[in-house]
Design goal:
349 residues, Butyryl-CoA Dehydrogenase, subunit A, domain 3, Nuclear Transport Factor 2, Chain: A, two-stranded antiparallel sheet, 12 helices, disordered N terminus
Length: 349
């Protein structure tokens, strides 16, 4: 993973200095506080979201962390402190909040129903995420985020800040509260884990997109032969319903089994008049499946390498789709599908 744009050095824990505001005690005026905070929010939100989302694999949780970080930033300004580098301060606070949140994640995962997947993130536009280079798009992929899940919270922070965002070890040491040498060791250990499990993707984005377009066209049309021809022999399908929407109970493996599973999905798409909307999902080809009224049913993401689809991930958990738009009632749609099939069976008798 090559290094991204470096950020301004962090000076923790003493990088706050008294401001020279309009008040006799040195505090800035309320107007200057509001203007500074507003400008900082607009400028730094994309970077902070990039860090928080990669740390937490959740768009909604990343937004919550950013909001808390800005509250702390505004409080610091109200306390009469001058922050030499808002970017450095907010990057540090955001990362620390993410580490704290990740430390509680294992307990929540133990009670999670079914297979857990990251919250899907639409990345069609660079406005969603400032990382425009291919290597940074790959660091957003669901496959990569799942690899990061195997790292400790601090390892994850050190690896991301250094290898993805280009922070120096001295800066990172101040953020995570470790020595610079310890951070180097953490990064080396994390890099070893990531290298061993790092997912492969088709080098050309154009080739990925062309294959994805063919894949979703075949899915829409119920073209079994076409689907089989685009799947790796050991292709795997994962589904995340979180116990709140119908989903596959376990991973489905193998081209024939996956193709037949997708054929059933295709039948549902036609019977329920679901539309397929192509998108970049977590930097990889994917699609949003929408109900006739436009509400989101599920989001698919594809891992493509060697000219075939290697992995298919489907998120239908409504809690993980709300940030994309209004969410359809998947359970009601499943009931509608069962009713349609019951009527078809009755008509054949």
């Amino acid at each position: 993973m090559s290094h991204a744009r470096p950020v301004e050095p962090v000076e923790p824990p003493h990088f706050r200095h008294q401001a020279s505001g309009a008040h006799p005690d040195g505090r800035p005026t309320e107007e200057s506080e509001a203007a500074t905070a507003s400008e900082t929010l607009v400028e730094l939100r994309p970077l902070l979201f990039s860090i928080a989302y990669r740390m937490l694999s959740s768009a909604s949780e990343a937004e919550d962390v950013i909001q808390e970080a800005f509250i702390r930033f505004q409080q610091a300004l109200r306390d009469g402190m001058r922050i030499a580098s808002p970017k450095a301060y907010l990057s540090a606070v955001t990362t620390r909040l993410c580490i704290d949140q990740l430390r509680s994640a294992p307990k929540r995962r133990e009670t999670y129903v079914g297979h857990w997947l990251p919250e899907p993130l639409l990345t069609d536009s660079d406005a969603v995420d400032p990382a425009a280079h291919a290597e940074q798009a790959d660091s957003l992929s669901m496959a990569f985020l799942l690899v990061l899940e195997r790292l400790s919270p601090v390892e994850r922070a050190v690896f991301l800040l250094h290898d993805v965002f280009g922070y120096g070890y001295a800066e990172i040491a101040g953020i995570v509260g470790k020595s610079e040498e310890n951070c180097r060791q953490l990064a080396t250990r994390a890099r070893r884990h990531v290298k061993a499990e790092k997912p492969r993707f088709e080098a050309s984005r154009e080739q990925r997109d062309r294959l994805a377009a063919r894949f979703f066209a075949a899915l829409n049309e119920g073209d079994l032969d076409g689907l089989v021809g685009m799947l790796a022999d050991d292709v795997v399908v994962y589904g995340d319903g979180g116990g709140k929407a119908p989903q596959w109970a376990r991973p489905i493996v193998g081209a024939e089994r996956v193709a037949r599973l997708l054929l059933g999905v295709s039948q549902d798409i036609r019977q329920l008049k679901i539309t397929i909307e192509l998108h970049q999902v977590n930097g990889q080809p994917g699609a949003i499946l929408r109900a006739p009224d436009g509400r989101v049913v599920s989001v698919f993401s594809l891992d493509i390498a060697d000219g075939v689809v290697q992995t298919i991930r489907s998120v239908i958990n409504p809690d993980k789709l709300a940030h994309i738009g209004p969410v359809a009632d998947a359970n009601a749609m499943a009931q509608e599908r069962r009713e349609i099939r019951r009527r078809e069976r009755t008509a054949r008798l």
